[in-house]
Description:
It is built from 17 helices and 19 strands. It is of the alpha+beta class.
Amino acid sequence: MSATQNLVEALFGPSAPDADPCPTRTRAVAWARVSTDMQEERGLSMPEQLREIREYAVKHDIEIVEEFSEAASAYQKEERRVEFKRMLAYVKANKAVSAILVREFSRFSRDSLRAQSLIRDLREAGVKVVSLNDPEVDPDTVAGVYMGAITFAGVEAYSKAVAFHTRKGCRANIQARDPETGWCFKNGGQPLWGYRSERLVRGEEKKGRPIIKSVWVLDDTAVAGRPVHEWVRECLVMAGGGSSLDEIRDFLNRNEIRARRGRYWSISTLYTMLQPHSLLQYCGYGVWNVHRKNGTMRPAAEWVIVENAQPAIISDEEALRITARRRSDQRKRFDTGYGQSRTSKYLLTGGTFKCARCGANMTGLTTASGTYYVCGSLPYRRGMGCGPGVYVPQKQVEAEVMEGAKALLGVCSDRKGFTRQVNEELRRVWEQRTGCDPQADRKVKAVDAKLSNILKAIEDGLVETAWANGRLRELRAEREALAVPAQASGEPPQIDDKTALAYLLDLERVLKQGDVAERKRVVRTCVQEIKLAPDSLEVEITYRLPEPVMNGVVAGARFVPDWQRDRMPLVAAHWVYALAKQGGREMRRSGLTA
């Protein structure tokens, strides 16, 4: 034993025993992704990814505590990747999870910068992203930094190449003509109303799988005694003759022609049918590359247009007549008493109150007999809505909502506990809005340590000076970003018991005497959702509850103090009210469920 070891043992005692030969198993979540719903339906990738991940976990003695998967593009923003966002939240909330297993990094994200940023953030939180098929690198070494950048750049480059060749194939496919039918092939998607997609087998691949192509043909399904494509032609001719969208909608509904997504037609669907790219297709032209990936329309010069791509339903002259007529007609404003504006007298419009049958927002309706809430599809389908109309009396449903809000926002019996929670929430909001990080001091020290290590390495003769200088600039910028908010923001606002009580009393005042705008804000704070079930004639009101004991109601959620901006977390507690009859003149309470 050396003199150094003797000194260490004298100062700190005998050396610690060897590590536990049976350490706690690594806990991980499995993540699988395919790019499209079609891939998911065919089982091309998802089951195979999960199977490989499970085999890897067994081989390396890793416990998979949860599996997540979705069919979505890895280029989508995180907020649109619902399952991906849920997986990240799960990992961050469960401290026992220390790894995310993926078949390859491209399943995680194809954007190299975003992927590296996410993986770095997870690593700082103690979670490692493990790829089964990509090389493992140490991000804390110079070689690891280079290898990581090369790996993710390769993933993104591959994805870009696939997208390029896919678009090239789509462009060629839509211009290719089927030798048997004479029509051009399609790249997928739902055909316009009046057409149906016909799948054709055109040869075999090298591995013996059939080559499937699709073309559009006229939809000759008989509806009300006539083929569908004839109804389409009549509607288009009506539009060219000067009929309004309302008149065409009423014509279809009167003849009981079902819309594709529901029983009754709306003017929005007809409006889409009369757009230039749709009219071109009704004239028999094949049209591709109309919309960008984000849904916006490209300039017409970028469209790919092919003549005689499918059977025509109207002529070019009829399409020009429709366009000219639509441009000359001034669009009339629809106003028959339906109220949806923020300044309307209806408290529950704007998305709070919805129809459970079709998902449309309930909107206010003023009639000679009173004021009601009706399904928002009613004004667009001229009295038919998504089915038999149900009229919910405004005064009664709003009175029930306000009574529930009063019960939930009554004066808290534990004033000190309420004040403490408000102050905690104020600190959280302050940190979020000012950019102040409560862990800033710890992070500054960590950055300082990295700076010191790199400077020492340069002094010791580090060869990669270019990398070191770039890394020093990054770390210094990171340190400045951490230090400035902490110096400039001051202290978070805090309230005392007296202020908290005044706040609660003010909420009560608003509920009783506030104007429409103030009461709307309180309703949106206290109410998660209101749904009308037209078939059972029930109105279901689901509230958001604060954590303290409010008039005997206990719920596990934090109270958000700024009710004019923020909303409370959701909890499962709701009232159900039954309409006494169709067209509802009264409501009766049927109970509280949790």
